[in-house]
Amino acid sequence: MQIDISRPILDKNERLAAENRAIFDAAGIFVLDLMASPGAGKTSTILATIAALRGRYSIAVIEGDIASSVDAEKIAAHGIPAVQINTGGACHLESDMIRRALSSLDLGTLDLLIIENVGNLVCPTEFYLGEHAKVMILSVPEGHDKPYKYPGIFQIAEAVILNKYDTIEVFDFDESEFRQVVSSLNPKAPVFPISATKGDSVELWAEWLAGRIEANKART
Fold first, then answer.
1. Of the CATH numbers 3.40.50.2300, 3.30.450.40, 2.60.120.40, 3.40.50.300, which one belongs to the domain with range 6-219?
2. pTM for the whole thing?
3. Closest Cα partner for 115 from 211, 220, 29?
């Protein structure tokens, strides 16, 4: 006899996530779950996204890390409300963690909530948080073969950000092969090459996100 202990955990998470989603929809907030491996540039991408959109939308960030508050402090230093979640070793965020973090935010004032998930290409794919979209970041130095090794995260991402694009000539990164594999796994997901720390080519990504925010507003 085999007992699957993961199902009750996921069932509870799904129930709480649905409640989170109801809260977000009632407040008219678009929620983005941003996933990537450590060092891919999640925080720098968030800062570049904030710089592109803060004149149009009110934004807040929930930062997920195993430990420390470094990233939340970086976000807050730019005048953006930021809540830090430390998982204490867990490799992903869960819906109950998000629920507790919401009490620190004025939801009625927000248009966009960005959740920076824990750096991991596996665990976050399994846990719905109530978000409207999951987006993943791959940085050029990680290599173009990541979709072969971690297909799940590319299959569920509604968009893929290819960060540190300014280094593509330095690393052995086959962009054509990368795009072909991503397209085979997820034909609808656009790929946005950016250099977050320099702010290069962020506009197309920001406009895609703005389109999702506006579509969400039209529904609520």
1. 3.40.50.300
2. 0.93
3. 29
